């Protein structure tokens, strides 16, 4: 079984010092023979492994640190690397090393998909603690997106969200797809950093309070989040909507973003906005007939909503509900496949009363 401490996050820089690494199959697809190749791979956002001497890898390490990429060392000479580079690095055992990506179907540890976090970093930590107690220390938590915005009461809640999630990501304990709030945040942060302006919106302004270097590292991390990922051979994680026929080659990235981040829009001629001016979406789960189990969030429900093979795990933590997770591979009819924690009071969106009373049904099944 893969050790949680040996899981390597996507986009990491792996410094190989173990003499066996040349023959080790897990890492071969990521090895860069030259520092220039390593830099090219890093700039493209790909996981990169390099066997060069420490002084040759300095530029790659500096780039990784500047852009918020985890740095991992494998092998008995790890101390020489960290001393020569004067940089922190996580040491992993080559025999248990597993590089994570957007396809987790080969991972042999439990995966729990958690609903919209929305800066509820305390509730997230509570859920991780429960997940570890129920499913073991090696559990991997995967978010459905919307990691930022809405929740928390002050600047420190925004910066704590970035710090906690990025740290767990670097440790191989957390992955996420992108949500619509995260997507918009990247645009606002990019504009503020490019033009050296102070954004009017609370979340990007809070992230910038720690300085442009930290804000840039968080921005790069969010930008690298995938639009969807495969949690198992039969399970897909996406933020809002899923359509198996959508591919970049046939519909383009913009169409994928529209459906995956916001959900399908009403057909032509039907109303497209509600009374508050927000986009309307269709209840696509009722008509879904694909082969995959799809786990998503975006649309808040009082309890987990299961419609056929579509699972909505957004139970409104930020509005005083709960933060809920689904164990990938678990029986959708079995409540033991789900875990849930109440919203921490410090995470609840300001000026919003709790949405739920003490009665908690956890799962609502709807016939497709």
- The low-pLDDT segments are none
Strand percent estimate: 15-25%
N-to-C span: 36 Å
Shape: globular
Output the radius of gyration: 21 Å
Query: Structural class, judged by helices and strands?
Result: alpha/beta
Strand order of the largest sheet: 11-12-13-15-14-18
Number of strands: 18
Largest sheet: 6 strands, mixed
Q: Work out the helix count.
A: 11
Helix content: 25-40%
Helix and strand succession? EEHEHEHEHEEEHEHEHHHEEHHEEEEEE
Average pLDDT for all residues: 89
Give a description of the structure:
- The protein is an alpha/beta fold.
- It has 11 helices and 18 strands.
- A 6-stranded mixed sheet has the order 11-12-13-15-14-18, with no helix packed on it. The chain has a 5-stranded parallel sheet with strand order 3-4-2-5-6.
- Helix 3 (54-66) packs across helix 4, helix 6 (155-170) crosses helix 8 (202-208) and helix 7 crosses helix 8.
- The two termini are 36 Å apart.
- The model has no long low-confidence stretch (mean pLDDT 89).
Task: Sum up the structure in keywords.
single chain, alpha/beta, six-stranded mixed β-sheet, five-stranded parallel β-sheet
Q: Nutshell version of this structure?
A:
The model has no long low-confidence stretch (mean pLDDT 89).
Q: In terms of topology, how is this protein built?
A:
Layout: E1 7-8, E2 13-16, H1 25-28, E3 31-32, H2 35-43, E4 48-50, H3 54-66, E5 71-74, H4 78-85, E6 90-92, E7 98-99, E8 111-114, H5 121-135, E9 140-143, H6 155-170, E10 174-176, H7 180-195, H8 202-208, H9 212-223, E11 228-232, E12 235-238, H10 248-251, H11 253-262, E13 293-296, E14 304-307, E15 310-312, E16 322-327, E17 338-342, E18 363-366
Parallel strand pairs: 1-7, 2-4, 2-5, 3-4, 5-6, 8-9, 9-10, 12-13, 13-15, 14-18
Antiparallel strand pairs: 8-16, 11-12, 14-15, 16-17
Helix pairs in contact: 2-3, 3-4, 6-8, 7-8, 7-9
